[in-house]
Design a protein that fits this description.
By secondary structure, the chain is α+β, with helices and mostly antiparallel strands. The chain has 16 helices and 14 strands. The chain has an 8-stranded antiparallel beta barrel. Strands 2-3-1-4-5 form a 5-stranded parallel sheet, with helices on both faces.
Length: 461
């Protein structure tokens, strides 16, 4: 049991007895702040203190000590740091290591695979590009599997695995057909490969916005000029667009501030001290969908969203995200802080877990289906939701790292109004109040659950 879990266990024992932190502190001769640190996982009581706690909380001392020593796998986050040539990744990795080590993370770095292969003679000049990318992908996958296994066996509370580029970076160097062929070879698909990473952070190349600082001298695997670097940067952004947690760090500030913005984005995602979601939401005129899909930095995702029974201040939902027929399943729990801020925790689900959670469906809320167009534009990441029966309107969202961040909508988007604070446009409320033609009817949903159950049984055979 890690420190945080043990702290939660102590808090539950105290609250069941109706004791305050101040009262427990007086019994032990320490401050209520010390009790708070135990319950937040920031420190642990010693053996003498555990014996007193066991007596006061009505639990055997042996059980309490065993709980403390119980070992569970650490919380593991795997993120990607990507970007165009000469974007500052090398320095950024140092910043990430220093900052998050101080935050209590065990930070593991997976080195850039191309930079390992190319200087040692394995490169596209000695192989076909497809064969090179296939070998690069194999080594990338092996390294990630190795680091993840190592992380699971570490006796620490939390691990941050930082990939210096990820598998999807290969897509920028291949045709779409070649990349799909590569994914097929490794028995995966686009959405699984992309969302095997918890979050992706793209540093924009110095060639875009800071050309005076662009150089090829600090990386033996880099040969692109400014024009080629800018083009490659665009291809990398396009490749990663569609990931649910994708952030672009541009060159609108000096380099130090650029890295500070990166650290802030990663911190916000990881939830230090807690996983906050800050978003703005707009009602917009329904855009031309064909024009959206013609844009290189736009990805279409089909979403099915079902709400589960929950308390008044907490929202629980399960979600199916599909790209070209392949899908990933998620459970999301959100706790409201204010109209703009929410604490959000998300985990991937197996099909079995997903079907099991369907039994907890909120009977007062219908399942929502929508098509999401993920758009990277002007170094911002927009999500445009199209509901099946809305002929003239749509919803556009953007997640922020700062409540005061100013964002301009793309010029081809007609904003009707800001609905961030309007409860009528919250999916949670729409699922309860929207007309029947906007949602999957009950009988169709029951058939869907039945077919999914049959599929699971077939897969087991």
């Amino acid at each position: 049991m890690n420190n945080i879990e043990f702290g939660n266990f102590l808090r539950d024992l105290r609250e069941k007895k109706g004791f305050t932190q101040e009262y427990v502190g007086r019994i032990l001769g320490i401050t209520d702040k010390a009790i708070s640190k135990w319950e937040n996982g920031k420190s642990k009581p010693n053996i003498d203190q555990l014996l007193i706690l066991a007596d006061k909380y009505g639990i055997s001392a042996e059980k309490l000590i065993l709980k403390l020593k119980e070992r569970k796998e650490p919380v593991i986050h795997k993120i990607v740091l990507t970007g165009g040539p000469c974007a500052g990744k090398t320095t950024a990795l140092t910043w990430i290591g220093n900052y998050f080590t101080e935050k209590g993370y065990k930070v593991l770095f997976i080195p850039e695979t191309a930079t390992e292969l190319i200087p040692n003679g394995v490169n596209p000049s000695s192989l076909s590009n497809f064969d090179f990318q296939k070998l690069l992908a194999r080594l990338q996958l092996i390294k990630e599997e190795t680091y993840e296994e190592a992380a699971r066996k570490m006796d620490v509370d939390k691990v941050l695995i930082v990939c210096d580029r990820g598998l999807i970076d290969n897509k920028a160097y291949m045709t779409n057909e070649e990349f799909i062929k590569l994914l097929d070879f490794y028995k995966t698909n686009l959405i699984k490969a992309k969302e095997s990473y918890d979050a992706v952070f793209h540093l924009v190349t110095a060639a875009k916005g800071k050309p005076e600082f662009y150089t090829t001298s600090n990386n033996v695997a880099r040969s692109e000029g400014i024009k080629e670097a800018s083009s490659l940067d665009d291809k990398l952004i396009s490749a990663w667009t569609g990931h649910p947690h994708f952030r672009i760090i541009d060159n609108s500030t000096d380099f130090k501030e650029k890295l500070e913005r990166l650290i802030k984005e990663i911190t916000s995602f990881l939830g230090e001290p807690e996983p906050l979601e800050i978003e703005r939401k707009y009602l917009i005129e329904r855009p031309n969908l064909n024009n959206l899909l013609d844009m290189p930095n736009c990805t279409k995702v089909e979403i099915t969203q079902t709400y589960l029974k929950s308390s008044d201040d907490t929202e629980r939902r399960i979600r199916k995200r599909s790209i070209d027929g392949d899908y990933m399943l998620y459970l999301t729990e959100k706790k409201k802080i204010n109209e703009l801020k929410r604490v959000e925790v998300e985990k991937r689900l197996t099909e079995k877990e997903y079907l099991s959670l369907l039994d907890e469906t909120d009977p007062e809320r219908k399942t929502i289906t929508k098509t999401r167009y993920c758009l990277s534009y002007n170094n911002h990441y927009f999500e445009i939701d199209i509901y099946p029966e809305w002929d003239k309107e749509a919803i556009m969202e953007i997640e922020l790292s700062d409540e005061n961040e100013v964002v301009s909508a793309p010029e081809f988007i007609e904003v009707i109004k800001d609905v961030t604070d309007d409860k009528a446009y919250k999916n949670y409320n729409m699922a309860k109040e929207m007309p029947k033609q906007y949602i999957i009817k009950e009988d169709i949903w029951n058939i869907y659950k039945y077919l999914m159950t049959i599929r699971i049984c077939y897969m087991k055979k």
